[in-house]
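1st attempt posting a full record on here, be nice pls
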Amino acid sequence: MMTLPWHLYAMAFIYFIAGLNHFRNPRLYLKIIPSYFPNPKLLNSISGLAEIILGIALCIPLLSNYAAWGVIALLIAIFPTHLYMYFNEKARMGMPKWALLLRMPLQLGLIYWAYLYT
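the predicted structure (as tokens):
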């Protein structure tokens, strides 16, 4: 039986909790979904459910490779929210522009972290 590294479980936990938060505090996420996307409530639910499922799948050795690719796809799919927050004052939630700018390369770091498990 294959043992997964502890840091993969850490990543899985982060995505699982983030996914749950989409349902616990949906208003937070609805504010940052770009207005040009249709049906923000559905998109929030889909992305939250995807994070939960991917978080669980990362912990299953048979699925962890596929889940890591799913995390990469999800991070790419939600990247427009970072741009939207940076350029839209209402979506910033009071965060300074420099912090929002730093989130973009952080997203690349998260993609790389997931790539390590593919």
